[in-house]
Structures are given as C-alpha cells and as structure tokens.
Design goal:
The complex is a heterodimer of chains A (about 250) and B (about 425). Helix content of chain A is about 30%, strand content about 25%. Chain A has eight helices and ten strands. The chains are: A alpha/beta (about 250), B mainly alpha (about 425). Bound molecules: adenosine-5'-triphosphate and magnesium ion (MG).
Amino acid sequence: MSTPIVELKNISISFGGVRAVDNVSLDVEPGQVVGLLGHNGAGKSTLIKILSGAYQKDSGEIWIDGQKADIRSPRDARHHNIETIYQTLALADNLDAPSNLFLGRELTNAFGFVDDAQMEAETRKIMARLNPNFKKLKEPVSALSGGQRQSVAIARAVYFNAKILIMDEPTAALGVHETKMVADLIHELKSQGLAIILISHDTREMMELCDVVSVMKNGQMVGTERVEDVTEDEILSMIILGKKTPDAKAS
Amino acid sequence: MSATPDPTPAPKRNLLQTLEIDVRLLGMVAAFVIICLIFNILTDGRFLTARNVFNLTIQTVSVAIMATGMVFVIVTRHIDLAVGALLATCSAVMAMTQTLYLPEFLGLPLGHPLVPWIAIAVGLFVGTTLGAVQGYLVGYLAIPAFIVTLGGLLIWRNVGWYMTSGATIGPLDPTFMKFGGINGTLGETWSWIFGAVATLVACWAMWSARKNKVVHGFPVKPIGAEYAMMALVGAGIMGFIWVLNSYQIPAARLKRMFAARGEEMPEGFSAAYGLPISVLLLIAIAIAMTLVARKTRLGRYIFATGGNPDAAELSGINTRMLTVKIFAIMGALCAISAVVASARLTNHSNDIGTLDELRVIAAAVIGGTALSGGLGTIHGAILGALIMQSLQSGMAMVGVDAPLQNIVVGSVLVAAVLIDIIFRKRAGLK
Ligand SMILES: Nc1ncnc2c1ncn2[C@@H]1O[C@H](COP(=O)(O)OP(=O)(O)OP(=O)(O)O)[C@@H](O)[C@H]1O
Ligand SMILES: [Mg+2]
C-alpha cells in the first residue's frame, strides 16, 4: 500500500445548528479512485468543498503529500494541484466554453492580453477527447445543454494536470455514450497516477470505477470498504441503514 | 438520412451575420440616427449643423467617460450612485489646488506650467482613493453597493461644498481649461491627421484580427465584407472629422486670439475648431476600457463575476479585490470627468455633476448593460450617453418645456430597457 496523497482527518463543519460533516476522515492514494456514497444531504458535497477550499472546516486537519496543508480558498487548493468538478458545475453562464475552461488561468500573449484564439484551439483539442460532438465554442454556456455544460466542467478539471481530482456527480446529466467516455477518462487518469474522489448515486457504476467506497450518512462516515470485499447490497444497506449487514445478527 | 452526410453543414448566414455586426448595436445606431433626423426636421436643419454637432459632442464627454466605468460596476451586479458627487469633490479639490493650495503654499501661481498637471494628479489620486474605499466597503465588508454609494452621494457632495464653502471657484488654469472642449481643440490640420491615423489603426486592427483567425484555422468573413467594414469605419471617422472641421471659429473670437498674442488678424483669415481635446480623451478612455474588458484578465474576471459570482470565486478569482479595483477605476474616471466638466464651465461650481449619477446609469443601461449582471459593452454605454444628450439638447432647441424634457428622458429610459428585454427574449438570450 502506498502512502496517501490526501488525508482528511476528523473533519467537522456546521451550518447554523446543523452538523453537515461530523468528524469524518478519508484517505486517498495516488492512482486510486475513492467513491463517496450516501443519501441526499449526507454531507458528501460539503466534505469535498472543504478539500477544494470552497468551505472552511470548523475542526480537523487536511494533509497533502504527507504534509499538513492550510487550504482557505479555492486558490490554495489549486496550488496543491487539486481540481474540482462541482455538482453545480460552477460555470459563468455568460461566457463561452474556452473562457470558462481557462477561468482564473487565462493564456496570455506577449503583451499580457488574453489570447482567445489560443484558448479556443486548446479547448477544441481537449473537447475532441471528451465529447467529440461538442461544437459550440463561441456561444455562452447558458446556450448549452446540461450534458454539454458538464463536459465543459470536466474539461476544465482535467486540462490543468491535477494530482488530485474531485468529481461531484460528474455524469449526472450525461447520456450513455458520454458517461462511457467519462468512465474511460477516469481509468486513464487513474493509470496516470491521479488520486480521484468520485461522488455518485449510481452504486453499480461506483463498484466498477472505484477501488474503495466510503459511505456517509447524516454527516458521519459509516464505513470504508474495498470494492472487492463488499457486495452491492451491502453498500446499499450502508447507505440506507448506516450499517453493512441488515439484521445479520437478529436473523 | 442523406446519402452523403456533410460533417460540418454551413449554417445559413444573412447579411448581418456575414458582416458580423451586432444587431443590438445596429438598433441603437438606428435609433440615434432617427432621433437626429427628427430633431433636424423639427429645428429646420439647425440640429445637424457643424456647430451643434460640436456642442453635442463636448456636452456628452463627461457623462460618457463615467458611463464606461459604470459598465464594469453594473456588470458585476453593483451600482454606483455617488459618481456625480465624487465628481464634485474631485472638481473642488482640483480647483482649490490650482487657485489656493499651490499659489499659497508652494508659491506656484496660476498659469505656471506645473499647476494643471499637479492639480490633475491630485484629483486622480483623490478620486481613485475614494472609489477604492467605497469598493472596500462593498467587497470586503459586504455592505450593499446601493447603500455605500447612497451614503457616498450625500458625503462627497457635501465634502465638496464644505471645502469650497459653496463658492464658485474660477477662473481655472488656462492649460487645465483646454480639456473642457471649446477652449482646447486640435485645429483643422491636426484633426485631419488624427482622422487618417485613426482610420489606418482601425483597419490594421481589423486586418490583424482576421490574420489571427486564419492562423488558428477559424472561419473568417468574406474578404469583400472585410473591406466593406473598413470602408464604413474609415468613412465614419473621416466624416466626423469633416463635420468638426467645418465649424468655423467666429471672427470676433479669432480677433481676440490674435490680439492676445499681440498680432493683427490678417484680412479674410479663418480657422476651424476641429477635434476637441476632451473628445480625444474620451476616445482614448473608450479604447483603453474596451481593451480592459475584452483583452485582459481583469476584464474577463469582471464579466465572469457578473455572470456567476460563486463560479468566479470557485475558479480562484479574488472577487473582493476585484470589487475594490472596479470602484477604484470608477473613481479615477469620475476625477477625469471632473477635469472635463469643470474645464468646460471654466470654473468649479457647487452644483457641478448634480444628477450625473442618474445620467451615467441611464447611459449604461440604454447602452445595453444588464442590471442582472454579466452583460454590457463600453461602446454601447458611450452611444447611450450620446442618445441621452441628443434627446436633451434636441428638445431644448425645439423649445420643449424643462419638465416635459425630463418626462421624455425618463420614459425613454424605461422604454429602452423594455425593448431590450423583448429583444433578448426573441433572440433566445437569457
Ligand atoms: N451553504 C450551506 N448552508 C447551510 N446548510 C448547508 C450548506 N451546504 C450544505 N448544507 C447542509 O449540509 C447538509 C449536507 O449537504 P451536502 O450538499 O453536503 O449533501 P450531499 O451529500 O452532497 O447531498 P446530494 O446527494 O443531494 O448532493 C445538508 O443538510 C445541507 O442542507
Ligand atoms: Mg452533493
């Protein structure tokens, strides 16, 4: 077992009185896909937003590459090579796909001006890999379909050579073909040694894509299992009942 | 399915798409032309004389300069109600610097070559700083811009009053007054030269944009359309210069100018005003602000933040600092407008810039800046300012009563926004 690149230790955060994440720990190794499962409102998005710098944890520690990391903003997370696909996609609707892809990291020319032509060409290249049908590079992304928008968000996360990739329901709006391409992409990135945290409600998909699945319920961690050690039913039971074996001892 | 599928079917393009002309802009230009023609008929041709075009232009500059900054403010979903008051404070500071502080404390008399520049530098510093302070209150302390600048409106208007005790301060430095319009023009020859250079630069810009597209293999419009656009732009620029150059300086004024130099005016001598320096200033600001909006990271972040503030923040953009920068730019532009406005009046008066906040916001909004954020153009705002000023002066020339003038301008503002909403719905935007 290699050493984890991400270690979340005893993370907690509250909104008002609600403990959205309650003393949760999670490790991810390079080249590993960790699946995060749980019912709606379990705290999955909140947990990864702490790692991506969108939220500030109340307590707990984040360790990156064996060193304690101080992540206070999305900028800090980017400095640690953490890229995130948010559930809400986080796109500026009035800008086109290339502007969104490079938002915050625009390519510039010798005069320091943004180089739109270069960014468009790069976007074309990466989109050819992710979603070859994608042609609307000049339109504002508000004019795109849900799946096309999702493709832009995915492209943005994978373009910049992340070491740690967080994907919050990346395939929720995608068609069968596009979902397959994202699955291929995850396999490819994994083989390149990226650490990936994947959130999804599709248990079967998670069993196929992930090495390890972690289940959250009501802000707490129910458990973490290697996929070869559990059945889909056991995972479902963890999600719904908060324990691995339903009535195992009772019956 | 067809037997020979075309991978990239060429979409049908109409003339406007071929020329890549913004339909909305075209609508505004059309509205402007119609307004001009109607007033020209109503005034028996007095509206479109060289003299009136000249006056209209210099009257628009001050509001137009501030409107370019208001675009950034409104695009990021803020508002600035304090621009007229900030203009007054900057104007007061600059007037006091020229006429009191520099002569009294540094021994530099009015007319000393350094005086106007020191005064302008002080004004710019004050405007930028006060703008930045407002931006800090909005960005970092999260007080709504409406409240901060409503407070600013009261504060700055009365800081200016307090500084000058409400007195009119003038006359100002002669060099300083050249920025006002009629007292500082390029003259015929230099205006033509400027027009020619501007035409060449515009054509070069269009050509290099085209070349850049070709390099990256993007579609370009037909070469004929490109030449047609260049011809149109060139004709527009040179036509404008021609009109300004045909406004002759009145003989009496010329005589005084010669007398001031201790010379006798030669018989039959005539000269035209040409391009006012204030207009040159507006053009420079318009180009700079357009470059910022379209070609810099700052501009990209302004529009991204307006489109989706959360997405901007999650993309690593420091939206708080961005707010400070935007209001600082707005403050600097207020100071520049203060130079133009006080120079045009040849003095600082206590009520300078009163109600300018409303004119500036109206110009930006008529020019297509959406209050919901994320949308707006610099040239639109300037055209908006021009339309407002044309309405106002046109009605004054026709002899419409003052209350009716304001009623019309108010109605036009609301109607313009309504038309914009309908247009955007039809076009499938937002
Ligand atoms: N910004 C916020 N302010 C207040 N409460 C919040 C905020 N963000 C999340 N919560 C609360 O925290 C809890 C966890 O939300 P979270 O979005 O993490 O759930 P999730 O597991 O991602 O659910 P889903 O599967 O629906 O995406 C919920 O009860 C939610 O209401
Ligand atoms: Mg979620």
